[in-house]
Amino acid sequence: MTPSERARRIKMVIMDVDGVLTDGGMYYGESGEELKKFNTRDGQGIALLHQAGIKTALMTGEQTEIVTRRARKLSIEEVHQGLRNKLPAVEELIAKCNFVLEEVCYIGDDILDLPLFGKVGLAVAVADAMPELKERADYITRREGGQGAVREVCELILAAKDRLEN
Asked: What is the pTM of this model?
């Protein structure tokens, strides 16, 4: 099945944060505050998914207020942080939403994301993901994490559903 065929069935997009919505860098200010850089085009892609009725969620191994604030700004209601094993959290979330794994797109970059690959309907690795993920991905983005990779996936899904406007 092609990525486009898989994308047509997607009802929810779940994303890792560091290395997917960010470039994976950890920035620290002089007084110890942590900073992350997000791509506004990724944010617009997420807004387009919401307009099309596609739900979104964040699942990350990190635990930070920055992620909570970014999710709030993007109207992402499902935010799960501090996860070492993401599969049970994904299964619980989709059961709550009455979805099945085949209706989920998961975007990841590192080994914590690997258990979801082969289980979800569309497993996406960003261009600079670890080789283990790329080997098992249904789709590998042309763009790197934090550089528009999420927007690329949003457009793939919307185009597959004929909901991307010219």
From this structure: 0.94
